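Q: Hi! New to this. If I give you a protein sequence and the SMILES for pyridoxal-5'-phosphate, can you show me the bound structure?
A: Yes, paste them in.
Q: Okay, here:
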Amino acid sequence: MPESSAASEGPSAGFLPYGRQSVSEEDIEAVVSVLRGDWLTTGPAVAKFEADLAEHTGGTPAVAVTSGTAALHVAYAAAGIGEGDEVVASPMTFVATAATAALHGAKVVFADVEPDTGNLSVDAAAAAITSRTKVVAAVDYAGHPAELDALAKVAHDADALLLEDAAHSVGGSWQGRPVGSIADLTTFSFFPTKNLTTAEGGAVVSGSDELVRRAQAFRNHGLVRDKSRQRYPDEGAWHQEVHEFGLNYRLPDVLCALGSSQLKRLTEFKLRRAEIHARYNAALAEVEGVLTPPRREGADPVWHLYPLRVLDGRRRALFDHLRGLGIGVQVNYIPAYWHPVFEDLGYRRGLCPNAEAYYEQELSLPLFPSLKDSDVDRVIDGVRGFFGS
Ligand SMILES: *Cc1c(COP(=O)(O)O)cnc(C)c1O
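A: Thanks. Here is the predicted structure of the protein with pyridoxal-5'-phosphate bound:
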């Protein structure tokens, strides 16, 4: 169904956000019908959403959870990390990629990124591995898949798992294989600015039955209901047991219905994002003073962000200039270890020079499916005007 009205998409004059959801009348109907039904929380819409999502991950099973952050926390729990373990992680990410590992008691070892894509460097990840490494956590920055095969090899050679934080890249693929079908554990976010939304929401995807079972358990308090796995199976039909602590990270039916409805438009969203990305590239590639985002051979990104690189220390001035024009640019991200919580643990600036250089130049231009070409041109004019080109 087409967008119902301009009002549901926000005005194009006035302030342009950098990201925005695209909610159709059909999405609204899907949510309303769940509200009218018998189940609000864990009913049939959860299993349906998980199955629908698996159609975009090459059939790899999904576990729906309440956010991308919850997905990471659950994925690390499934991997069994704890005190004394190390997680090698990209710093060019939202803090949750690292914070959720730290919350399990693991030590986060930040490894530097490639200078052009901002994705975890294979060599840096390999150099950061120790005998205590349990997980290598890569991020598909901006929606461009990381070097997943090489990173999986680095992880597996060390008896560790590859976790792919694919909060930006659901619907993308790498060397012909969909995101979700490559890493041992893949996590998604369905926050409104991401490639599809359930308001708050996320998912863990894994091809391993054991990792899926552990993820399902952690999502639901660690409850064991399967009699064959219980320590005291003869207690009674009501009986359930907790063998390992978990949390309540269950994504409710109401939001799963929204997710299933949104998934029907993921391909359309991806195409529109690619068009906007290409329009920016064409207009900005020749502008002196900026670099447009690269794309690796074999990468089929879902462009969640348009990360422009602003040279010569002018990023902040361009940010202020565009904000002054009502254009909602963003910066993604400060290196995760710059957060005072990591600084207080002894992490120091200078640790990952490529990530720091990337951060100093990065400026995310508005990018979301309902952005009109005229909105994109307004952003382009704003950038070109700044550089006088
Ligand atoms: C958005 C995001 C998250 C967290 O997802 P939420 O759904 O907001 O909790 C984690 N990692 C990355 C890279 C993200 O962009």
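A: Residues 179 and 302 are 10 Å apart (CA to CA). Let me know if you'd like me to explain how to read the tokens.
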